[in-house]
């Protein structure tokens, strides 16, 4: 009955962890789009960007990521060395 | 007349969909409704044993779908309460033996003659799930206060809206197997936490209680023979389904309750 750890607030209980973890995982789940859509979006983006600069498609990163309260679309698109942009032309 | 079809679903397995279907159905029948319990878990039927009607099965869902018999002929009447019927799932066929269109048509047919069709949905979100939700007007999502169950429930709510065309207003949840002792110690998610996370209306709160196991052993839904708090919790949920304004039992939070528990006079 008397749990001193709780009375002095030294132990907040696992519920808080459960709720916090769920809050983040649900934000992520709710915004997850299908793999097919993600692939299509990736293909279209590559096409558009390639019109302006040469990019290295083999090293391309493209994914949804939960960051704190929000979900971000993270894209890392390396530009090939042999490029007008880099040469400053 | 046109009744209502309500799918009992969860995403995650083992959270108590079948027990919920049996008890909500029995409670609705006790209130005077005519009810068909439809076991949509083809290949893994269990509603028959939970109801204690397994020895009376002659025809099943597949016999009805393929036109061998009319649905009325396949219904098993529960002799313990008026107006309660079971349409058992087939045990031999797999889940692909039925198409969504066939299920929708069958449920429409049953609705013309009964007040309620409660559909016991299989676990998962594959074809069997889609078949079970397609003909439903409303959904009750069964959720236990665990991380995995809450997460799956959220996924299912999204799919009910998208694939089943069941609007959010017609989706409610039944929080199952809650342990107030753990909630008080802050070692378990409370109903309000789950409500806040899932953002859906609470239809009922069912305490974790070993009498469910005893009643399943015997094949008697607790609602039919129980005067205990568990039976009352199911009756309350059924009453809310019928639009009755039934307050949630706050006994566990009251000061008197705390004092009584302290002296071991209440649970």
Q: Helicity level of chain A, as a percent range?
A: 40-55%
Write down the overall geometry of chain A.
Answer: elongated
Extract low-pLDDT stretches of chain A: none
Please report the first level of CATH classification, the CATH class of chain B.
Answer: Alpha Beta
Q: What fold name goes in the CATH topology slot of chain B?
A: Rossmann fold
Portion in strands of chain A: 15-25%
Largest beta-sheet details of chain B? 8 strands, mixed
Shape of chain B: globular
Mean pLDDT of chain B: 92
Q: What integer value in Å does the Rg of chain A equal?
A: 22 Å
CATH architecture of chain B, by name, is 3-Layer(aba) Sandwich
Strand segment tally of chain B: 8
Helix-strand topology string of chain B: EHEHHHEEHEHEHEHHEHHHH
Number of domains of chain A: 1
Class by SSE composition of chain B: alpha/beta
> How far apart are the first and last residues' alpha carbons of chain A, in Å?
76 Å
């Amino acid at each position: 009955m008397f749990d001193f750890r709780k009375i002095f607030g030294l132990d907040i209980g696992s519920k808080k962890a459960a709720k916090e973890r769920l809050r983040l995982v649900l934000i992520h789940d709710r915004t997850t789009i299908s793999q097919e859509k993600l692939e299509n979006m990736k293909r279209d983006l590559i096409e558009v960007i390639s019109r302006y600069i040469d990019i290295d498609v083999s090293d391309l990163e493209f994914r949804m990521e939960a960051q704190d309260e929000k979900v971000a679309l993270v894209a890392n698109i390396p530009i090939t060395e042999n490029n007008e942009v880099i040469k400053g032309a | 007349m046109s009744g209502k079809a309500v799918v009992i679903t969860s995403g995650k397995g083992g959270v108590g969909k079948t027990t919920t279907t049996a008890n909500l159905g029995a409670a609705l029948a006790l209130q005077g409704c005519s009810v068909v319990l439809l076991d949509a878990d083809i290949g893994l039927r269990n509603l028959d044993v939970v109801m204690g009607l397994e020895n009376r099965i002659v025809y099943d869902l597949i016999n009805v779908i393929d036109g061998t018999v009319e649905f009325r002929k396949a219904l098993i009447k529960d002799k313990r309460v008026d107006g309660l019927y079971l349409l058992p799932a087939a045990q031999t066929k797999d889940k692909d033996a039925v198409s969504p269109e066939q299920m929708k048509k069958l449920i429409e047919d049953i609705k013309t003659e009964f007040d309620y069709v409660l559909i016991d949905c299989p676990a998962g979100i594959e074809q069997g799930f889609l078949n079970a939700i397609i003909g439903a007007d409303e959904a009750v999502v069964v959720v236990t206060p665990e991380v995995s169950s809450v997460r799956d429930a959220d996924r299912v709510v999204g799919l009910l809206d998208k694939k089943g065309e069941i609007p959010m207003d017609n989706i409610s949840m039944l929080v199952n197997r809650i342990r107030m002792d753990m909630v008080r110690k802050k070692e378990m998610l409370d109903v309000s936490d789950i409500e806040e996370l899932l953002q859906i209306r609470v239809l009922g709160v069912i305490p974790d209680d070993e009498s469910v196991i005893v009643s399943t052993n015997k094949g008697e839904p607790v609602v039919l023979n129980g005067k205990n708090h568990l039976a009352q919790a199911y009756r309350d949920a059924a009453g809310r389904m019928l639009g009755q304004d039934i307050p949630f039992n706050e006994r566990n939070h009251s000061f008197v309750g705390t004092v009584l528990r302290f002296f071991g006079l209440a649970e």
